[in-house]
Amino acid sequence: MNELLGLLKTLAPAIGTAVAGPLGGLAISALAKQFNVEDEVEAVTKAIKADPQAAIKLQQLEQDKFKLILADRSDARGREVAISSSVNAPLLNKIVTPALAIGVVGLSFVLFAVLIFVEVKTEAKDILIYILGVLSAAVTQILSYYFGSSQGSKDKADEIKGLMTKRELPNDISFITAKPGQP
């Protein structure tokens, strides 16, 4: 298993994470199907090592996973647009999602205010903080749904990091040691 994880870490990090995670068995099955081998860690490891096209196949699997994630988000937003722009949809269907979103965000702010400005019993404070934690996670998801997630920012940061590591320094480094006023 360690050998397989080592291979996946370099060739397909997202798949490596899936294999090491709680759904590792499903990930191994998907890899076995992709490489047409038995559904076993050893068989998958041998197949990846022996296949010169392994990197391409693994990257294709990662791209397919990413496409499914994007399609899921697109479907949710497409449903929202279809309902809100439909003349046949009842008003309740048009406002239920935004109303719930506003309610959750508003409730979070109210609970923050209660914690800050109101004297709360110690027993109730723990429960209030727990509920606020759950609501904070929901607010994060709501903001990601309506305003986008940080995936684009992460991708851009990764690209910049990659460019910085590939950048070569010039052979002549006299510009670093030169004193002001010297060429």
Shape: extended
Category from helices, strands and their pairing = mainly alpha
How much of the sequence lies in strands comes to under 5%
Rg over alpha carbons: 26 Å
Specify the oligomeric state: single chain
Terminus-to-terminus distance: 57 Å
Topology as a string of helices (H) and strands (E):
HHHHHHHHH
Report mean pLDDT, rounded to a whole number.
77
Per DSSP E runs of 2 or more residues, the count of β-strands stands at: 0
- Please give the share of residues in helix: over 70%
The major beta sheet can be summarized as: none
Unreliable segments (pLDDT under 50, ≥5 consecutive)? 166-178
Structure annotation, total helices:
9
Number of domains: 2
Structure report:
This protein has two domains: 1-71; 81-164. Helix content is 79%, strand content 0%. It contains nine helices and no strands. It has helices spanning 2-11, 13-20, 24-35, 41-50, 54-85, 91-117, 122-147, 151-166, 174-177. Helix 1 runs antiparallel to helix 2 (13-20), helix 3 (24-35) packs across helix 4 and helix 6 (91-117) crosses helix 7. The chain starts with a helix and ends in a 6-residue tail after the last helix.
SSE inventory with pairings:
Blueprint: H1 2-11, H2 13-20, H3 24-35, H4 41-50, H5 54-85, H6 91-117, H7 122-147, H8 151-166, H9 174-177
Helix pairs in contact: 1-2, 2-3, 3-4, 5-6, 6-7
In short:
The chain has 183 residues and is mainly alpha-helical. Helix content is 79%, strand content 0%.
